[in-house]
Design brief:
Layout: E1 13-19, H1 25-36, E2 41-43, E3 52-59, H2 66-70, E4 74-82, E5 84-86, E6 95-98, H3 105-112, E7 117-121, E8 130-131, E9 134-135, H4 136-141, E10 151-164, E11 169-176, H5 182-193, E12 197-207, E13 216-217, H6 218-223, E14 243-246, H7 248-255, E15 260-276, E16 279-296
Parallel strand pairs: 1-13, 3-12, 14-15
Antiparallel strand pairs: 1-3, 2-3, 4-11, 4-12, 5-6, 7-10, 8-9, 10-11, 15-16
Length: about 300
């Protein structure tokens, strides 16, 4: 019998998947991997099953740089249901309290000012953060609460979009740093407003600077013959990093793991994209005029 794994393709690049509601990020990843018949693939930052939107899928050599997308800024559109608090802070959880909603638009805007800039956030128990090797959500499902340290996050924008008074539904657009839990912002906002709140809709609009118009749905992928044309370049996870072009000889030294000297200098340690002639070969760290390899692609 033929080994299916041996028939899978070497594929390199990044796909911007528009993840559908109801699927875990790993389920979506496995479906994409099967559709492309790819040997190696990984996603870059999980979305809850309830959430939709941009989920970059890295193939092959691009997986070496997926961490930089995990660490990148993100933008979300969220709808919060006011008046109800749930144990998971979203619509997949059980309602734990119900209160009347007696808030005005001006009160909402005032409350939002407390969720902008650098803030300390305590991660939700229903998160994938690990404690003693197990994700927190596994403890939460057993009714076990683990003490969590507050983490510093940055909310660059927390914009009021709309408040539907009849439905008690508040729409926001949030642009934030890595590690931000939108569910926690909504839960904390509901407590500040005195009525409670939980997420009923969440869509990730952007990861890093990837354009929203480049996203593709699973349904569209299944109908498409030439899927490879959708892949973004292997170096795209590093698109915000400065570009360093080396000579062929310098590139050979970097590929051998050596530190080299450049004509230019950076006083601050800087992550850079490295090219040998015009071919991308990996990421490096430049400090002053020294360039050291950090993560290199296979050029064989």
């Amino acid at each position: 019998m033929m080994n299916i794994k041996n028939t899978r393709r070497d594929l390199h690049g990044v796909l911007l998947l528009d993840k559908p509601q109801g699927l875990t990020s790993n389920d979506a990843l496995q479906k994409v991997k099967r559709l492309f018949n790819a040997k190696k693939a990984g996603h870059t930052g999980a979305l809850d099953p309830l959430a939709t939107g941009m989920l970059p899928i890295c193939f092959g050599e691009a997986t070496k740089f997926s961490q930089y997308l995990l660490d990148s800024d993100k933008c979300y559109r969220v709808i919060a249901k006011l008046g109800e608090r749930t144990d998971t802070s979203d619509a997949d959880g059980q309602i734990v309290s119900t209160k009347p909603v007696e808030v005005t638009e001006s009160q909402i805007n005032e409350a939002l000012t407390h969720f902008r800039g650098d803030i300390l956030q305590v991660p939700t128990m229903f998160s994938a953060l690990k404690y003693q090797g197990k994700p927190l959500y596994e403890y939460a499902r057993q009714g076990i609460v683990i003490d969590r340290e507050a983490r510093l996050i940055t909310v660059y924008k927390n914009q009021f979009i709309q408040f539907d008074i009849k439905k008690n539904e508040l729409t926001l657009e949030i642009y934030c740093s890595k590690g931000t839990y939108i569910r926690t912002i909504v839960d904390d906002l509901g407590e500040r407003l005195g009525c409670g709140a939980h997420v009923i809709y969440l869509r990730r609009l952007q990861v890093s600077n990837y354009p929203i118009e480049n996203m593709v749905t699973l349904d569209a992928l299944e109908e498409m013959n030439d899927k490879d044309q959708l892949l973004m370049p292997v170096d795209s996870p590093l698109q915000d990093c400065p570009k360093v072009i080396l000579t062929h000889a310098q590139g050979d030294d970097i590929l051998l793991g050596r530190t080299i000297e450049l004509d230019t200098s950076n006083a601050v340690e800087t992550l850079v994209r490295i090219y040998q002639d015009e071919q991308f070969i990996g990421a490096g760290i430049q400090l002053f005029n020294k360039l050291s390899p950090k993560r290199l692609i296979s050029t064989s």
